Amino acid sequence: MGVNSETSTYDVVVIGGGPVGENAADYAIRGSERTAVIIEHQLVGGECSYWACMPSKGLLGPGAALAAAQALPGARERLSDVAPDPSAVLARRDTITSGRDDSSQVEWAQNAGIDVIRGHGRIVGDRKVSVGDRHIRAREAVVIATGSIASIPPVAGLREALPWTSRDATNLIDIPERIVVLGGGVVACEAATWLLDLGVRELTMAVRGSRLLPKDEPFVGEMVANSLTERGADIRFGTELDRVERPDAADSGYGRLHGGPARVTLRGSGDTLEVDEILVAAGRAPATADLGLGAIDLPDTGPLTVDDHLIVSGHPWLYAVGDVNGRVALTHMGKYQARVAGDVIAARAEGRNLDSSRYSAFADHSAVPQVVFTRPEVAAVGITEQQARDDGVDVTVADMDIAVAGTYLLDPEYSGHAKLVIDRARDVIIGATFVGAGTAELVHSATVAVVGEVPIERLWHAVPSYPTVSEIWLRLLESLR
């Protein structure tokens, strides 16, 4: 320890200041005399606030609003343009992200009794963390909530071309006329949606698999692909990048074009595209490197293995929440884990037992909700029919287009689809998927049904309001009679 070093002690030390870390610290000390500190080397508020959930939905909202107005006679006649104004959209995005100024998030933490230390936290021993010359000891727990980072596939010349990742796409300043999007998952599909809204002239999606959004029911990817294609996207399935050439690549900052045009050669076809930018949306990896995990005999790559209390195996004082544990890479599920972990830390500090279900993150296994804000929207929870059958579950399904009075009122030509997967033996829903405008607001009712294991017979008495899109619940139940 150097002569200028400083040592501090807190009950709870959290490495990572995103919403997941914030929730873990808050729940661990709320209503008590315990102390907590968050260590963050970038922005308090994390990926979600500045580079992911919030800015992406800010970019997607105006296009969705115009599409909704365009669908309704009486509204469409008042529209002067069906495309959003790019400068206004980007200005709104900057308002949502506070121009990447995290002072309000720091103020929230301080008001919650949580200290904030700027710097890179590293574990140096049991319950011990260093930040530069500063040494911090945790009485009760250390929580790792460092999230994940974008993965760059090992394609010749790709890394050297300095491609965009999701951080650039959500913080774009320069709108490329021609772009290739590598990937077919949530980030790729949402980014393609807003890039087309903002005026990208040529958008090519290089998708390794045979469909978009492959973790969802097959009709999901088909409907999203059809919509993107109708809007001008060129989707190449079964396609990977073979090599990339960009001789004048330049690190010009988030959302700027990273140099001049790039030549992208596609594997298999040998086609070569000249594009202004490349967006890599090919997955993410847990941010575990350079955390000092070797000091406590843990690997410094890959996810941290945890139990349902979010405790790292073999280290009863160490917790890992959010993307870093590799269970579910969704902000709301990370926050859920953080709430559970915080409650566990508080209970253990106070000598209470952990028998209650509130101390177990069991929803991660089979009741994960997600919304994909493409057009059409995708909302799903639980498992797909194929996943259920692969698990040996005897299932029946309710599967139909969404066509009720509420959808006609949204759009006379509304297009949507819904599917329920039901465990035949238990007569409960284990999966639900909705595609169509306005379906994001249907997923929580499905989540309650899945988590609560509500029998189908009982769901008949959950009456949907008329005339709303939720009336599809009645139609689905009728199909099971």
UniProtKB/TrEMBL annotation:
All copies of the FAD/NAD(P)-binding domain together span 10-337
Every Pyridine nucleotide-disulphide oxidoreductase dimerisation domain range = 368-473
For this UniProt record, give its keywords in alphabetical order, as a comma-separated list: FAD, Flavoprotein, Monooxygenase, NAD, Nucleotide-binding, Oxidoreductase
Give the cofactors, semicolon-separated. Answer: FAD
* The organism of origin for this protein: Gordonia mangrovi
Family annotation (Gene3D superfamilies): 3.30.390.30, FAD/NAD(P)-binding domain
State the family it belongs to: Belongs to the class-I pyridine nucleotide-disulfide oxidoreductase family.
Protein name stated in the entry: SidA/IucD/PvdA family monooxygenase
